[in-house]
């Protein structure tokens, strides 16, 4: 795999930026990319000079989600997860939730599409800042069950239910209004705004950042968020045995991924069919 699958730089003092670099695939999440993002964040967490990290995407999108086009062929999972039924949803959930366990805060800088696995990655980060017209959603509910069920926690029951039953997205502005994101900016202002926030965070002593990050996460865990997300992986595993999933996979083999996704979404008039 190309060594440049992620780009790493330090755009401000004590700030590490990790850029997913598959722009031609809208940063779809193949195994090497997931592994490279987590490895880069872990490296930053060990670096005494880094106080805060940023995850963003090159090209037109943050991430369009997990690669469904066969891009993982020949690659192993980037880290070990015990096998058996439900291995995949447990695997990806463990990966994104590991960002919670890092000592230092991580910011998601979201533009364009932030779908399915891309929304899981962003949600696993500590802070989320979005372009006003970014699209965050989980269209995969139209053929299966999500791996990581964060919707009710960050969007409230009613909006969460609507998204889970339709596969519709929310914009960056709507995500802020609902509480999924911290703030939204015009896309051409997003990068500078995130860097300013990261630099502001970096003014706080590292040991306090670490403890105060844990304060918030521990409260969410005591309210049951982490247990609830983990329990949801069992429903995801059940979802792989539905007729809808079998039909979707069969259509990919027969018609190809692009046609299958377009047919899935055409009746809704969004995603690939909206432009």
Condensed summary:
This protein is of the alpha/beta class. The protein is 48% helix and 15% strand. The protein has helices at residues 31-46, 87-101, 117-124, 151-155, 157-166, 172-178, 187-201, 206-222, 225-239, 243-255, 257-266; strands at 6-12, 15-20, 52-57, 106-110, 113-115, 127-131, 135-137, 169-171, 183-185.
Radius of gyration: 18 Å
> For this structure, what is the CATH homologous superfamily?
2-enoyl-CoA Hydratase, Chain A, domain 1
Q: Strand sequence of the main sheet, in spatial order?
A: 1-2-3-4-6-9
H/E series:
EEHEHEEHEEHHEHEHHHHH
Distance between the amino and carboxyl termini: 32 Å
**What is the overall pLDDT average?**
94
Uncertain runs are none
Number of domains: 1
Helix content: 40-55%
> At the first level of CATH, what is the class?
Alpha Beta
What percent strand? 5-15%
Number of helices: 11
Structural class: alpha/beta
Number of distinct beta strands = 9
Major sheet: size, sense and barrel closure? 6 strands, mixed
Indicate the overall shape: globular
What is the assembly state of the chains in this entry? single chain
Overall CATH architecture: Alpha-Beta Complex
CATH topology: 2-enoyl-CoA Hydratase, Chain A, domain 1
């Amino acid at each position: 795999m190309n060594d440049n699958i992620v780009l790493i730089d330090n755009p401000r003092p004590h700030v590490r930026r990790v850029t997913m670099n598959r722009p031609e695939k809208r940063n779809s999440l193949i195994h090497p990319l997931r592994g490279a993002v987590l490895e880069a964040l872990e490296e930053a967490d060990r670096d005494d000079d880094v106080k805060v990290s940023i995850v963003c995407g090159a090209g037109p999108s943050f991430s369009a989600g997990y690669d469904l086009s066969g891009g993982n062929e020949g690659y192993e999972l980037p880290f070990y997860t015990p096998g058996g039924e439900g291995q995949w949803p447990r695997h990806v959930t463990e990966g994104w939730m590991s960002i919670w366990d890092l000592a230092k805060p991580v910011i998601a800088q979201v533009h364009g599409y932030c779908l399915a696995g891309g929304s899981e990655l962003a949600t696993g980060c500590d802070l989320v800042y979005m372009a006003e017209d970014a699209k965050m959603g989980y269209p995969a509910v139209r053929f299966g069950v999500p791996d990581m069920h964060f919707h009710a926690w960050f969007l409230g029951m009613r909006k969460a239910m609507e998204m889970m039953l339709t596969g519709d997205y929310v914009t960056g502005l709507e995500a802020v209004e609902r509480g999924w994101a911290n703030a939204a900016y015009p896309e051409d202002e997003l990068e500078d705004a995130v860097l300013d926030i990261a630099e502001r965070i970096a003014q706080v002593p590292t040991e306090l950042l670490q403890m105060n990050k844990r304060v918030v996460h521990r409260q969410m865990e005591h309210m049951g968020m982490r247990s609830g997300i983990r329990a949801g992986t069992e429903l995801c595993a059940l979802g792989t045995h539905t007729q809808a999933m079998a039909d979707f996979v069969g259509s990919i083999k027969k018609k190809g991924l692009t046609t299958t996704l377009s047919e899935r979404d055409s009746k809704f008039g969004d995603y690939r069919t909206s432009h």
